[in-house]
Specification:
The complex is a heterodimer. Chain A has helices at 2-9, 11-33, 52-55, 63-94, 100-108, 115-129, 135-159, 163-171, 176-205, 208-213, 220-230, 234-266. Chain A has 12 helices and no strands. In chain A, helix 4 crosses helix 9, helix 4 (63-94) packs across helix 11 (220-230) and helix 7 packs across helix 9. Chain A is mostly helical. Chain B folds into 2 domains: 2-40, no CATH class; 72-298, Orthogonal Bundle (MetI-like fold), CATH 1.10.3720.10. A two-stranded antiparallel ribbon of chain B has the order 1-2. In chain B, helix 3 (67-108) packs across helix 8 (173-197), helix 3 (67-108) packs across helix 11 and helix 8 (173-197) packs antiparallel against helix 11. Classes of the chains: A mainly alpha, B mainly alpha. At the A-B interface, helix 2, helix 4, helix 5, helix 6 and helix 7 of A face helix 2, helix 3, helix 4, helix 5 and helix 8 of B. Chain B: Residues 80-294 form the ABC transmembrane type-1 domain. Chain B: This is Spermidine/putrescine transport system permease protein PotB. Chain B: Belongs to the binding-protein-dependent transport system permease family. CysTW subfamily. Chain B: Keywords: Cell membrane, Membrane, Transmembrane, Transmembrane helix, Transport. Chain B: It is found in: Cell membrane.
Amino acid sequence: MPILKWLRRNLVVIAGLATLAYLILPNAVVMVFSFNKPNGRFNYSWTRFSTDAWQDPCGVADMCGSLSLSLQIALWATIGATVLGTMIAFALVRYRFRARGAINSLIFLPMAMPEVVMAASLLTLFLNMGARLGFWTILIAHIMFCLSFVVTAVKARVMSMDPRLEEAARDLYAGPVQTFWRVTLPIASPGIAAGALLAFALSFDDFIITNFNAGSTVTFPMFVWGSAQRGTPVQINVIGTAMFIIAVVVVAAGQVIATRRKNSAKA
Amino acid sequence: MTALAEAPAELPVRKSSTRKRLVPYWLLLPGILWLIVFFALPMVYQASTSVQTGSLEKGFQVTWHFQTYWDAFKEYYPQFVRSLLYAGTATLLCLLLGYPLAYLIAFKAGRWRNLVLVLVIAPFFTSFLIRTLAWKTILADGGPVVHALGALHVLDVTSWLGWTEGNRVLATPMAVVCGLTYNFLPFMVLPLYTSLERIDSRLHEAAGDLYATPATTFRKVTFPLSMPGVVSGTLLTFIPASGDYVNAELLGSTDQKMVGNVIQSQFLRVLDYPTAAALSFILMAIVLVMVTVYIRRAGTEDLV
């Protein structure tokens, strides 16, 4: 049986592609249903083709407001977590000092904790402090949980950097500031960019921690959550599809640039 | 997570002034302060909340009422058991599904490698809630998936096992586990891929030269060398899955509530803060103990 033989030889490839299909399937469904014209409030079953939602993506009350709020929070959280995280990463890789072990555990723990535990504990802090839940409490929480991931991403890159490059810069009479801006930062930038991208994605998509600490403020994931009970407008699928396409383009562009750079470095 | 492994980056020791010696502390200060104030301190507050008694109207006082822990555990242990069971099953499924995909990207994809990687990462950027809601459409009663599973008599077996109910998948354990597996699969694939990619392909050739069959090569060479990826992948899947309440809420029914659902409703709806805090601490303790034991067993202590 040649077919069976072929199947056996390509078992890994077939299984891998099946998993990939499992990963992509919901995105495909989201895309297809962004062209649906639902009968009632819920957009769960196919009725007929229509581009209404694409022509009027902000036609649902409060949705685009929540989207822009999420984008703002993600932007500030990314900046905050990337700056703080990069500083920590450099300190951890480049310097020996006491309390390194304790600091490493403090950075590891937020990643080893179910989100709901962090969310609940932060809420008890805010309740005890009498803080007003809203934009600021969300931002504080997002910087907190993104921080560890940025540290991890930047650390990996800084660890693989050759310290001799910086020594060479110093030998060529570059000051510490000049060395940092002209040598250290450019080499570390792919790690910093990866950390920032991760922080943005995590913050933008976070639901569990936001749900606990947002009060009556509605971010985009919270809007989606609420709409799951009230009835999901087709526009949610439009936003989901647009985000997917933007992500594919951004990530693909990043890959192309990285490959180009690698090739030109070889040449 | 694999990057957490500490590689000694040896730097030449320089004589330095006091000012220079303080540099790492200045670098660490803002970020570490942030983590202490908004991560560690909240844990202390939660600990104190968990031993308080009182009500929302009269206010809460610390009375060292540890009974709350026992009462909370006694009342909600089915949800704890279910959480660990669902999260464990989802982790195992993620490993079984994710390994071939990671292997495919690392060794077989060739010039398609970047495209496949993009397809694994890109779904991250579409809100996971939207994608989870899409499973409602995919698994809908009478939909093509349920129809196919019914025609293949898969549903007869799963119903007998108690995973599904009659002719439906939605609002059953299978739907929740399917959602959990789906949501955390990329967290398994990426670390697996990273550790597989590091394996020197000459080791595979060497194994072949020594007359190892592909299966033996995998068992004796590839899999052991990918252990760091397996460990961090399973942790990255199991930990968030054990505290998740989104999948149980959107894809399950009241019979599939996990401990995350209980914590969420106690905190945000019932407003019984002591019980909610105690539940969340019990979950944290269970997860930390399991993770520690697992890391010891798996023998990659340098991970932390």
